[in-house]
Amino acid sequence: MSVTSVVLVHAHALFREGLRQHLLAHPEFRIVGEASNGQQAIQMVDYGEPDVVLMEVDLPGVNGLEVSRAIKRTHPHIGIILFSSEMDGDHVVKAIRAGVAAYLPRNVDWATLLATLHEVRRGSYPINDLVLSLPDVATQVLAAFRQMVVDEDVQSIYSPLSPRELEVLELVAAGRTNKEIAQLLDISNQTVKNHVSSILRKLAVNDRTQAVVYAMRRGWIKVTLPGE
Length: 228
What we know:
It is a single chain. The protein is an alpha/beta fold. It is built from eleven helices and five strands, in the order E-H-E-H-E-H-E-H-E-H-H-H-H-H-H-H. 37% of the residues are buried.
């Protein structure tokens, strides 16, 4: 069984203790560090090189979104799960832009958190499912991304991506998981991962969200929600 290393970041020691106790009951997880503020979190991630960071948005000093951006710049492979009391579209957009893999309410139940941890460890972005499951949030998120396209000049109509890679990226933009993409395109899950890795390398970006935004800004792909 592969072990997932985790860093816990929360201002309150009691909250971290609760998370720690729950995770210690599952041998597939190992706590490699804890932090109570943003600066400590960045240092702990640099030191511990975890697979996943579990973090509160409202941290003293540097907040969770800023910490997420800092982590993804230097450790793009690390999955970040944020807890927040604000689940509106504006906050979700900010989380997506920061490269966050999952965005959960503070009162999330343990079963959901555990399932999210496993998804993020596999490289999935459950935050995409959140966008599609909440119509109001989905509308705000899509509007924000479309505005980003309008606000910037299209830098190039040439795409270095293959037709298949563009297909994969459009499905990523639609919030599809690797497994769903594999089923829709009738390819293996590993092939999907290979395509995603190739996309990130060709576009010189750190994660799937950045790849989607990059391609949208240049008009290579379009994002539509179910029913549009």
